[in-house]
Design goal:
With 261 residues, the chain is of the alpha/beta class. Helix content is 25%, strand content 28%. The strands form 2 sheets. Strands 1, 2, 3, 4, 11, 12 and 13 form a 7-stranded mixed beta sheet that branches. A 6-stranded mixed beta sheet has the order 5-6-7-8-10-9, covered by helices on one side. The protein is globular, with a radius of gyration of 17 Å. 48% of the residues are buried.
């Protein structure tokens, strides 16, 4: 069983990249299940129902979210109707939306959970370690494997969670920083690990936004709009292979494909 996870899809350029490349990438990598973080898919901040349906229409089986999940007006009233979308599980319990997904393919059930990191993050959730414990205990009863996304700023926190869940989650993959890391590996007990999958969007940018307004903000501190950039668009993520019998990862490799818009 091969799982492709796509890093944070940023705005229209990221969505167009998925539209143009995903079918070929899926065939090339022989991906059975595709998951993507979509928290920046709507104008670079948040998600809408229309865009969620657009992305799943391209063949994505499940969409995850992060700290920008409520940035689009009215989405809190819509998320409950989106069966292929889950929010971070360690947000307050009264937040709307699913706290996990279960994706089935050829008799194999994959649980998908996102937790928010707490270090340097403005949006604060419950302890991601204890939340992951609880969700793994819940999902392992009906799933063959559980994929954990950690949406956080601090590399140390992500690495610590990877080691903490080694042998229990099939993968611990980081998102949020929009910068792909070079540490894809399988930990000793069979958990695939990557500190950050990077973004699917414009890399001629500052984290997906036009360069000059961000530079100016650092220079003078004045508020200004940060439009989504358009140059050097890439699809980034990670592909892992799972042994169906053991539910453990046997390989973990970064994915990066370019697109000129």
């Amino acid at each position: 069983m091969r799982i492709l996870f796509i890093g944070d899809i940023v705005g229209k350029p990221g969505r167009e990249c998925v539209s143009a490349l995903l079918s070929a990438v899926r065939e090339e990598l022989k991906a059975d299940i595709i998951i993507a973080n979509a928290e920046n898919a709507a104008g670079g901040a948040g998600l809408t129902t229309v865009i969620a349906h657009e992305l799943t229409g391209y063949g994505i089986d499940g969409l995850t979210l992060g700290d920008h999940l409520w940035d689009q007006r009215g989405f809190s009233e819509e998320i409950g109707n989106l069966e292929k979308v889950c929010r971070p599980a360690n947000l307050p319990a009264d937040n709307p939306g699913r706290t996990h997904l279960i994706i089935e393919k050829d008799g194999f059930k994959l649980g998908v959970v996102t937790v928010l990191g707490r270090t340097f993050m403005k949006t604060q959730g419950d302890c991601p370690f204890r939340c992951a414990d609880a969700k793994l205990a819940e999902l392992r009863k009906e799933c063959d494997a559980v994929f954990v996304e950690v949406h956080g700023e601090a590399t140390s926190e992500k690495i610590a969670l990877g080691w903490y869940l080694d042998g229990r989650a099939v993968a611990v993959v980081g998102t949020h920083t929009h910068v792909p890391t070079a540490d894809a590996r399988v930990l000793p007990r069979g958990t695939a690990y990557l500190s950050d999958a990077g973004m699917t969007g414009p890399y001629e940018s500052v984290l997906g936004r036009e360069i000059q307004p961000i530079v100016a903000k650092f220079l003078d501190g004045l508020p200004r709009k940060w439009p989504v950039a358009t140059g050097d668009v890439r699809l980034c993520g990670v592909v892992l292979e799972i042994d169906r019998e053991s539910g453990c990862a046997v390989s973990c490799d970064r994915v990066e494909r370019g697109l000129t818009l």
